[in-house]
Write a structure and sequence with these properties.
The chain has one domain. With 198 residues, it is mainly α. Helices cover 77% and strands 0% of the residues.
């Protein structure tokens, strides 16, 4: 791969990670519960008495290890670049949001956040330089078994939420919407980005 193509893919990963981080932060603080993985983080935090940040780190490590064993091609520099950019931007964006006093407006902000998260996820995944921990598991299962990404993602989302709730996590409208729309949007964006950008 030429240095120009390498640089282009790095930029795509960074831009996608920033968009995904902004989207998930919009959704999380709108007041309608957490996205799918956030419910699992909450449950692990409650059960094992560790911080949300530590819970998210543990989940990410387990998923990366699974993907590395099941389909090593999913793990690359983008896997680690994404985690650094994504985590840093979530902390940054969390301090910048202003929401309405009207719940219906906040609902549409949350909806926009979920869509942006899925778009950003599909975008950085299209660079094929490794994926984030959750996406690595999603695409490993889909590509190795010739399954549709959207179906795999929806099933994984449901498993994350159920496990999280059983451990004490909480869910709301944001959780349900994430399960329904994130998989199809990720698959659509990933396919279009590969056609146009890669």
């Amino acid at each position: 791969m030429s240095s120009k193509n390498w640089l282009k893919k790095i930029v795509i990963i960074i831009v996608g990670s920033v968009i995904a981080a902004y989207g998930i932060t919009l959704a999380l603080y709108a007041g309608f519960g957490g996205a799918t993985l956030a419910v699992l983080w909450q449950g692990i935090s409650e059960t094992f008495h560790i911080s949300i940040g530590m819970a998210s780190f543990v989940v990410a490590v387990v998923m990366i290890l699974f993907a590395a064993i099941y389909d090593r091609s999913q793990i690359h520099i983008g896997t680690f670049l994404y985690q650094v950019v994504y985590s840093g931007c979530v902390d940054l964006f969390a301090k910048c949001h202003i929401y309405s006093k009207y719940m219906w407006i906040n609902f549409f902000i949350m909806l926009a956040g979920v869509i942006l998260f899925a778009v950003g996820t599909g975008l950085y995944a299209s660079a094929s330089l490794g994926r984030g921990s959750y996406e690595a598991v999603t695409f490993a299962l889909a590509e190795k078994n010739n399954w549709q990404v959207k179906i795999v993602r929806m099933i994984l989302d449901i498993l994350m939420v159920v496990t999280g709730v059983l451990l004490g996590g909480k869910f709301g409208a944001c959780t349900i919407i994430t399960v329904i729309i994130s998989g199809p949007v990720i698959q659509f964006t990933n396919g279009k980005a590969k056609q146009i950008l890669i």
